Fold these 3 entries.
Entry 1:
Amino acid sequence: MNVGLLGAGHIARALAEGWSLPGERPGEPERLTFFDVAPDRAAALAADTGGVAADDVESLVAASDVVIVAVRPPQVQEVLAQIGPHLGSRALVSVAAGVPLERLVALLPDGTPVGRVIPNVAAALRLGVCLFVPGTLNAWRDAVAGLFGICGTLVELDEKDLDVATAVASCMPGYVARWVSAFTEAGVSAGLARETAQTLAVAGARGAAAIVAAAGGPAAVVAAAATPGGMTAAGVAALEEHDIDGAVEAAVRAAASRATRPA
């Protein structure tokens, strides 16, 4: 399967890097083709991932079986107007937040196979989360699911749940990066060298996520780690005192709200 990416920003790069990692997996693209309004950016991504930079959108579509629209939401309408007449029976997948299937279908020729996927940047390491709304992909459904499943955990859901799911999962790298930054600064404030504090925070976050995944959820890990009277219990109590649950809920609500009024 040949895959074309319209746009060469952070998400397009993350997907392309994930698909081009060593170690073959079923459903991997045979060829990646890129187009961006900034030709140098598409050329750089093609060079980094072993792909090809197209001269124009028509050439990208002609070289692709599946076309992935990876532009900012306000640009989607213009892009679909350009490529719609050239799609034929090719599948189109939008990774743009806040542009619903109904809108995508209305902007494309009748019968175009179209779906939505919201990945996150951890797709570059094949550790991403890809939220999948099959839409009208029909015969393309399994192939698209397999393609994005290469980049991490694929979760199929109803479109009505997509904005909140995006706020929880696809935004998670940003949340965790901010969390790591806070722990780094706390370590520095308490006397650690910055490099040491950041190394510890990053390694701790990586290991903690793996333990939670292995345990099947956070409750068992909190119970096991937060021994009464111990250091972890004291720290968890302080987080709760400062309303960690309220802060996280506010973050998710703010992110989900942004999907309905993209910048």
Entry 2:
Amino acid sequence: MQLTKGDEMKTVLRLLCAAISMAAMLTSFGAAGAKPPAGLDKEAMAALQSLYAKTPAARALGDKAKGILVFPKITKAGLVIGGQGGDGALIQKGKVVGYYNTGAVSVGFQAGVQQYGYALFLMSDSALQYLKNSNGWELGVGPSIVIVDAGTAKNLSTTTAHDDIYAFIFDQKGLMAGAGLQGSKITPLDR
């Protein structure tokens, strides 16, 4: 059976609607004002310890950071239109002091599902205050962020670290290429 142009267009529209619905669902998991899921404290602390075990540079930064915002599990999915989202915890002096959600919608050549985590090491008082005072912070706007990859991590130490925020992406799993933070919005959650 051969599809007509009209049938092809209907199929494309159905896929587009499914992708939009999926993106909306992913970015609304932890809408502002929502409560963080149970067990988020333990998940965030375990993810941070796992990152420290794999990346000594992260531990060195963690010892000097004013705060560390850890998102242990971000889910990203898309088919042309995609979305990502997840909840995280702000850790200061070894204790969870706040909860946040991150979400983003993207358009472009993409297909698949992926999970990963990321941690933002807030190295200055001004970066920490920016996070706490903003009711919604889009990454890429505000304090400067350096994404630390495996090569950068080998040469990074507390004596060479001079930026406001360092981001580590970890535990990537799934069938989608790449994990990015640009355009992600971080919003506070109620306790």
Entry 3:
Amino acid sequence: MKKRLLVYVVLALVLSGCTTLKWVPRFEERRTPQVTVSEGRIVVTPEILFYFQDERDFDILFQLPRESGLTFPENGIVIEGELTDQVIRGDRISVVLNPGQKEIGPCRRLSNVEVACRNLHTRPGVYKYTIRVNGKDGRPLPSRDPPMVNW
């Protein structure tokens, strides 16, 4: 069931965000995602962090442009949890996160512009993480919650 959920999430993300086929960036680009702000919104490149089976036990180094005036707060990158195959049905359907997962994290701020998160990648999974950035004026911008996939 978990593998099927992983496949569905990846397919949904690919189909919803792609008008043309996009190839997975090189490992070095996925290992050092760049975080910027455009029109008041946090942007991460690559948009979906996707790691293959042979990419194990490494740091993901999130980086802001050094001279941008943007900074990561102490909780700049937080791994919220692993998506489980459980679903809550109510007014709307929502997925359940396992916040106790041990595959990715904990994340640590190395400087105002760099945060590192350890990815052990001992098994496949889809993870939700939150990016928080303070603007040039020091005020927090609206956070961003993209997915991360260990295949």
